[in-house]
Every structure is written in structure tokens, then in C-alpha cells.
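Workshop exercise sheet. Pairs work together: one partner reads the sequence aloud, the other fills in the structure field after running the prediction. Swap roles for the next sheet.
Pair: D.N. / O.F.
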Amino acid sequence: MDLYKVLYIDPGTGYMLFAILIGLIGVARFVFKGLWVKLRFFLSGGKHNDSSDKTIPLAVFSDDRRYWHIFEPVLRELDSRGFDCVYMTMSDDDPGLKQTGMKHVKAEYIGPGNKAFAKLNFLNATMVLSTTPGLDVYQWKRSKNVGYYVHIPHSPAEMTTYRMFGIDYYDALLLSGKFQMDDIRDLEKIRNLPAKELVLTGSPFMDEKRKKFNERSDDSAKADSDSRTVLLAPSWGKSSILNRYGADFIRDLLKTGYHIIVRPHPQSFTSETELMDRLMAEFPDSEQLEWNRDTDNFDVLNRSDIMISDFSGVIFDFSFIFDKPVICAETEFDDSPYDVWWLKRLPWGLSVIPRLGAKLTNENRDDLKNLIDSCLEDDSYTKSRHEVLAEAWAYQGEGVRRMADYITGKYAELTKGTEA
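Structure field:
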């Protein structure tokens, strides 16, 4: 018999075995911890107070270094209020590990993959704040020693385009737009889920980007048409531009004669490695084309004149902060893996794209240069861009204060009567 067939474990069984393993580890952990506490108590003559597993007031979990900018402004505000936090990251090169000046924020590398989840699954904390979907769906389980799980989105777009059940098991969501609240309430009704705490706080990281943009010197004078920079910033998955059009689309862009920046979604380098390797080998960096993988996308957005994308959330960063036009590819969005499938309607992000810029179709792809030029020279989308911004980004400039107020207030509520 084929050894591969004998050893093969389907994904569902794999997740079940992992859950069993985590359960066994948990039992062993608490048994040995109890024995260790008793031993230390005995050796200290009954005078030792164990604090090795002290409850963390707020644990902030990040699954990738690129999300540090989401948490940093909130952590700095909490630090200024003397609120103790532990920032836990799965990236050993996370900028948060080198943060300085925050006396009340401890940063910790918790390892990759299952090593990190094993720690998180037995975490002892009053609250956990994260932008990672999928809590209690796959490897990351709710810890019995965590009082409250709070999610914040990493984009001012909707969260119904998370993979299915991505936010079902959070206790609270801190949102930037009312449309997000409406989508989530509709999902809860359809799936008969208990109502989560939904709080409209605004968007701290968008506030920081706007502040950074306003602080920059005014060098945004219209460039000569021969030196325009076009940013291709697609999402990932089979409905994305690079999957649908591949090398042909990059060739079309190069034919315009403009400077081209290709910035794939970070997940593409994990889930679509073969595609990325093939495209980067066929179109290496040159004077006309560059591949961008900066952790912070501010600079690449700032120096681009126009963006071409599909359904990526970066569209909103580009439109809202830099007030520049976008061209969005006409894609056949497959909603079957996502929460929006349950709503049987177009995701909010896709529904507003026609108000942000032109649509790229198979018919106008042959005249890509003219499409780019017309978008850059036509101001008709400016008003509608501002209207979409108002729908997606409430309490502009107030996000950090509102989010920190919520966290400290919720902590006080959760610990009322338990602290000496």
C-alpha cells in the first residue's frame, strides 16, 4: 500500500487531533503547575505567594509584524495612562519588539504557528485585543483564563470578507463605520448567534496615517505625465488580478511607459508562493518596474499617482488618506469562503468601488494608458470619494482616545470587586 495514503490525514481530522493534543497539554500543564506551587509553598515554609502566572490586564496579539502600526497608537495612549499591557507577536522581527519609551508595555515574541497558539490557548489575561480572525475556529482557541476577547479590523472596509466564522467567537468588535455594525448584526440574526458588543470607535491607525500625511511637506504638485507612477496593489486568492490576468496584465502596464510598482498582498507570499516566484522571475526589478514589500505601505502609497486594485482593503487607505483615484478590476468575486456568503449581497467594499474610481474591464484593458490618464485628469470622483470616506470612517481624529477609553472602561467593569 502507498505509504503516503497510509499516513495522510485530512484537514478536518488534523484540526481535531490538534485540539486533542492541546487539551492533553493543558491538563499536563495544570497538573504540573499545581505540584510545583505546592512544592514551592512547602520549601518556603508556607510563606511564598506564587505570582508566576499573574493575570495580564491586556494582552495584545499580532500574528504578523505588518500589524504593529494597527496597535502602536493605542498602546502608546494606554501607556501614557499607566495601563499595563503585553504585546505578543508571532514575528521575531516585529517592530513592536524594539519599541522604546513605553514603560507599561511589555513586548514578547511567542513563536510561530502552533507554538504561539499553544501559549495563547492557555493565556491568563483579563482582556485580549487582536486583529486576527478565526478565534475558536482553528488552532487558536479561547482560553478559560481570559475574560474578554476584543477584535479590531485592520482596514476601514467590511469584516464580512473574512474567512467564514472569522469573528463569531469574539466578545466585542471595535468598528470604524456603521455599515460594519449592520453587516455583523445581520450575520448574527441569520446564524442565530448571540449579539456581540459592537462599539463605534473610529480608526486609530487611519488617524495616524492622516496625521503623518498632513505633517509631510507639500510636494504633491502634479507630476509631468511622462513620469507618472502606477501602483498595482491587488488582494490575494483566485479572484484577484494577479491570479486572473497574471503576467499579461503586468505586460499591459509596462506598455504604458509609466513607472510601475507591484505590491502584492502579503498573504500571496504565503499562500501563492509559486505564482509570486514565477512573476518575480519573469519581471525582475528594473528602472521601470519595482516590487514592493515594505511593512508600512505609507511611502509607496504617497509616491504613487494612481492605484489599480481589485477588492483589497488598501483601496480605502489610498482613497481616504491620499485622496487619489483608483482603478478597480472587474472581478468575479467568489464569496463562498467568506462570511458575506450568508448575507446574499455584494460586500460593502465592492458596492462602493464605482464611487471611488473607474472600472477596469476586458474591453478597456487594451487602452490601459488612456484609462489611467483619464482618471488622473478627471475630478468627477472627488465628491463621491469623500462621501464613501464619511460612511467608513467615523470619529475622524478621535480613534485613539475612544479605543483607549473603551479598553480601560471595560477592564474596570471586568475587574470590579476583584482587586484589592
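Discussion prompt: The two ends are 65 Å apart (CA to CA). What would you look at next?
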